[in-house]
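Justification of computing resources. Each target in the renewal requires a structure prediction run like the one illustrated here; the chain below, 289 residues long, is used simply to show the kind of job we budget for.
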Amino acid sequence: MDDKLTSPTTIKKIIQHFGFRFSRSLGQNFLIDENILNKIVEAAELKKDDVVLEVGPGLGTMTRKLASRAAKVVGVEIDKSLIPILTYTLKTCNNVEIINDDFLKLSLNNLIDTSFKGRNIKVLANLPYYITNPIILKLLENHESIELMVFLVQKEVAERITAGPGSRDYGVLSVIVQFFCEARLVSAVPRTVFMPKPKIDSAILKLIPYKKILYDVGKESFFKVVKASFAYRRKTIYNSLKKSQGQNLSPQKIKEILQTAGIDETRRAEHLSIKEFARLAKAFEGCLL
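Resulting structure tokens:
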């Protein structure tokens, strides 16, 4: 059997041989373009001593490419029907470990300690559209242990994550991700390079976690302020905070906090920079949010 895993003919033979059926609920769309695969792997800037976590290896297409360039690859695959296929496609890769589990239910700290011996990791994934945000946010919780992340995601999500203040795409996800990372949209990816073909286009997203968070503010208060600020997007920052925090803080107190942070109360959340959100969250610290 030809083993070029970006070949539609090869993929059809493999899934027929193993009786595999695509799962809509798991958002399975396999990459069938070698150039796009190479772009994803190149974006990871792999070195021979790197250790890599792949979320959702699927047929092992990207896994094999990663294994040829890194010291070790650990793939976490939720679909047990793909495990026999991965055993077949990765049979020549002696530096790959496959874990059949739900990534969102795993302890990432434990995984790093046991499978990677506590080393910092690089993360790559072709992320199903329905679960992209939870996976990225889970990884950001462990940003100190991650060198960089490269994802194939829905184009709209990549545009939201990389958006800057004043953009219509700028929102809670943009601010929270960019609080932890430098975010880059590497390349757009057409829907035609997947099997089966999805209804929407994708993009390669690269996230580089900061070695040290740039802002002197608690994460919990920062997240609460950001979410409250965008809760009523069409309203001014003052009215949005008053409407979302009115039971906890008086209108006058909210005005005072905005003044302390140097934020004009007539501005909207979508025009505030991450630095300004950090100042606002710092001013809110000690108040009930």
